Amino acid sequence: MNLRKIHSLLFVILLASFFACKKEDDPILDDPDSRLNTYLENSLQTLTEAPYGYKATLFTKAEKTFAFFMQFDKDGRVSMLSDFDGNSAVKLQSSTYRLKALQRPSVIFDTYNYISMLADPQGSVNGGTNGQGLFGDNDYSFLKFSGDSVGLIGNKNTSQLLLIKATEAEQKSYLEGGLGQSRQLLTTFMNSHKYPYILVDNKKIALAIDQSSRQVTLSWLEADGTTITNLSSPFFYTPEGIIAPFLELGKNYIEEIKWDNEKKTYILTVAGQQIQVQSNPTPVFPLVLQFGFKKTYSIIGTNNNTLPDGVNSTFNNLWKTVNTNFTSSGRTIRYIEFKLISENQATLTVYYSSGTTNYIADMSFTYTINQNLLKLTDPKRDFSNGNWTSRLAQLSVLEDYILKGPFVLDWVSSSSSKVTEPLGGLSPQSNAADFFYGYLK
């Protein structure tokens, strides 16, 4: 079943759950027991006569979506896989189920299984809220049988469960660890592709996939050049990739995000069109949109006395000189930071130590940022104390550098796998190869 049909079935479920509240509109509860028994028998037959089992999707009120593979037998047992975690994706679990008339004819999972984990009230089990878990359910009312699909709704938390008959090939893929492989493949891809994006009408749209929150987000820059729009959807895994059922691109839903083993990347399918996921060496949007006082980042700096690995800048040699100057004077640099401390004031601070005592030496500036151009004026030594002047013999080359502005503010890429956090840099407008850089904080 394609995603459009899934959305249609979701709509049917929502309508059915609404009308189920009205007893007078419920023919099942008004009919004799014999009809109810027949309905349960037919439901059991539908569940057990799917020769290759069901692929299932569970939508919870916690705004998370989970995938399952289920195979029901006539002896009241169901075999199950789930994309909840790496173990449940590959370890086939057998538990019991039964059909019974509760408020409506229902299937009850009456021994603890992967579905029960989502209904577990202990947040430590499923990462949900203590007392509620992820708002899953252990028993579900039948709402709709439609061709190869069964729609159900949770009797307590109204989570929505969709069962779709699996093909022989799909069953084989699930049972051979396809869900687990899909989870691991996505982890590997996201670790090695820091800033994935898709290209639509020559516009880069950032693609973020957060496996811990199970969210996919598309982000793009609006025509005004400053507004970033985000659109998110929960996702679930399939043996071929992932599906984010509520993610739209333009006026169309994205049908799937599928791994292409030949191209070694993911392919988005939307309205019959295939769009390849590409990777940027730096974030897609200009740094100036996120760097500023009280913005996402306001600091460019290091974590120790070395600059981040894998970056080629002539500033590297200058920084080695500053380190040598301090070492020769019996002192050690701890780290350095350029920081915007207000709407118009910035500081450059060198943190260092002498013996077991820590010190700082800093300068202050008035700054302006116009588009991506940073101008520093009114430089003053010794913003916090007199240490910049005291250490001027060691810091003079750094002072000369910071007075070279104006600077172009931009992202910095690293060739090192050790660098996993975003880097930013200040490039003198007169010499783009001589940029100061560090981790964005």
From TrEMBL:
Keywords: Signal. Residues 1-22 form the signal peptide. InterPro entries: DUF4302. It comes from the Bacteria. Pfam families: DUF4302. This is Uncharacterized protein DUF4302.
